[in-house]
Amino acid sequence: PSGPPGECAGGQAQAASTAAGDGEPGNDLSWPPVAPIGDPSAGSGRGQLLVLAGQAAMQVSNWDEADQLFASALEHLPDTGHDHAHVEAHRLRAELAYIRYDLRQAQAHLDQAGTAARTCPDRTCRARILITESRLENRLANSGPPRPSPQPTVKTTHGAPTLASTPAGLPGAVRPTPGSPAYYSVNEAAEARHHRDRANSYARAAVDLARDLADTHTLAQALDHAGEHTTALALYTQIGDRWGQAHAEDGLGEVARGRGDLEGAAAHLGTALTLSTQIGDRWGQANAEDGLGHVARARGDLEGAAAHSAAALTLHTQIGNRWGQANAEQGLGHVARARGDLEGAAAHYAAALTLYSEIGMDSQAERVRRDLAKLTRPDQTGDA
After folding, report:
1. What is the pLDDT of residue 271?
2. Are 342 and 330 in contact (CB under 8 A)?
3. CA 205, 159, 266, 282 torsion: positive or negative?
4. Which of 79, 192, 243, 354 has the fewest C-beta atoms lying within 10 Å of its C-beta?
5. What are 43-86's pLDDT values in tens digits?
6. Sheet holding 183-185, edge to edge
7. Residue 64 and residue 69: Cα distance in Å, rounded?
């Protein structure tokens, strides 16, 4: 799903996107790594076939069906002598819980995957678990709420956090104002950095292990998650993985958009949309549409921006991705505001605020509050 800056390891594309001035996150570029589990005719054949069916359902964004298939697979796979399918069923259930923003359940499934991996002879199990662990840590890093705090505070920037000054008459705290950066307490900022450091560590470990195993598919996924989209794209193309190619193209589009290369961004995102449509990946389609909406708006093409953001909203709603829905609503709010439709902008921003709040993305909710505040402050014209 779409996500805040830093969702993929290092946050290369998302941080660049936000730096470009959108005030909205780029796409969630660290999609769940899905890979073959081996010969389904060997061992617990029915369980392995159910895992394969679950993987196929995930790739077309049928997430509830996929979760049911993985749960059924675990009933047919042995609790001892764990094989790769057993590990993958637990790990992919963790990915699905992550998509639903049930981070505790995601961690529980991931712990079960880790336990099963200890007796799995296939070390690619561990490499994929590392990618999922990195994704979860990044989401935990982005879940900290910006708020006035009675403790000394730090101002979050695109570089290292810096101590914020304490306004007169407000001992030990700062008060965020519309249009200002979000502020975090020292403890919250330190915890976020801790999670992000762990995410980066897991991501690099996944790359190193995949290289050591000479596993091209897992290496491509690990590199893609770590933000090395160009190398990942070459590997995906080499092995004919169009799902991976679409994802890497989307990542390259977000990176290009972040550095202001709108022509390059449109080309990569257009390719991602074409590939995702061809393979029936609604998540990929929605993310590409969302990115193309940002590009169109940056070019001054408000009609195109509205069409792409509306398409993204429809797709994200179909697959139940509330994060993506919120991003699309915020994008539609920006378009409405640019058109002078303040009532429409307020409606879209309010919808985005509700969705971000429901999934616990308080930092992004704060940005939407600033967007709403700008509707009554005509001097504030830029996006948050």
Report:
1. 98
2. no
3. positive
4. 79
5. 468 888 999 999 999 988 899 999 999 999 999 887 654 578 88
6. 162-163, 153-155, 183-185
7. 9
For residue 314, give every residue at least 6 positions away whose Cβ sits within 8 Å of its Cβ, in sequence order, or none. none
Question: What pLDDT is attached to residue 84?
Answer: 84
Distance set, CA 45 to CA 87, 175, 194 (Å)? 15, 59, 41
Q: How far is CA 273 from CA 31, 38, 140, in A?
A: 15, 30, 29
Tell me the C-alpha to C-alpha distance, in Å, between residue 329 and each of 33, 60, 124, 313, 324: 28, 23, 39, 7, 9
Give dist(CA 131, CA 137) in Å, integer. Answer: 10
d(C-alpha 322, C-alpha 100), whole Å: 8
**Comparing C-alpha atoms, which of 315, 314, 341, 313 is closest to residue 329?**
313
Q: Contact, 288 vs 253, CB < 8 A?
A: yes
Identify the segments of the chain with pLDDT beneath 50.
1-23, 25, 28-31, 37-43, 81, 145-183, 384
**pLDDT per residue as tens digits for the range 13-27:** 444 444 344 445 455
What phi-psi label fits residue 277: left (phi over 0), alpha (psi between -120 and 50 degrees) or beta? alpha
CA distance 236 to 7: 21
Separation CA 198–CA 155 (nearest Å): 21
